[in-house]
């Protein structure tokens, strides 16, 4: 089989739904036979990789900071203890957990799967 740039590919594993090829530069590409475009894997430069990591980190930090600001404000000031603000507080706690857990984990997963 010929690869994307004309290099010879070596079959690593094979099965009904997934095959893996190793190119001459030892890059593994996973192919789904039913989808011809599944072997095309993009590569990012280290600069792009770092910029995306910084963006995901800043997004997570900004989410955590702003939701902490809402949580502290509603909790600290008695005047803000209204039923509507308690709903906002509950949403801020949920968003805080999203910013602490989901955004970093999913961001890293998406970045690393693209570069693999």
Structure, described:
The chain is mainly α and 116 residues long. Helices cover 55% and strands 10% of the residues. It has helices at 46-76, 83-115, and strands spanning 10-13, 19-22, 28-31. Strands 1-2-3 form a three-stranded antiparallel beta sheet, with no helix packed on it. Helix 1 (46-76) runs antiparallel to helix 2. The longest helix has 33 residues, at 83-115. It is elongated and about 55 Å long.
Concise synopsis of the structure shown:
Helices cover 55% and strands 10% of the residues. The protein has 116 residues and is mainly α.
Supply Rg. Answer: 23 Å
Helix/strand/pairing category = mainly alpha
pLDDT < 50 stretches: 1-18
The fraction of residues in strands falls at 5-15%
Fraction of residues in H or I helices: 55-70%
Oligomer: single chain
Order of helices and strands: EEEHH
């Amino acid at each position: 089989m010929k690869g994307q740039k004309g290099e010879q590919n070596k079959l690593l594993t094979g099965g009904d739904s997934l095959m893996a090829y190793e190119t001459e530069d030892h890059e593994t590409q996973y192919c789904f036979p039913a989808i011809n475009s599944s072997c095309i894997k993009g590569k990012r430069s280290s600069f792009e990789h770092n910029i995306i990591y910084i963006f995901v980190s800043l997004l997570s930090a900004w989410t955590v900071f702003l939701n902490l600001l809402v949580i502290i404000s509603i909790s600290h000031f008695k005047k803000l203890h209204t039923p509507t603000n308690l709903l906002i507080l509950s949403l801020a706690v949920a968003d805080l957990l999203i910013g602490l857990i989901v955004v970093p984990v999913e961001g890293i997963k998406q970045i690393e799967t693209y570069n693999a």
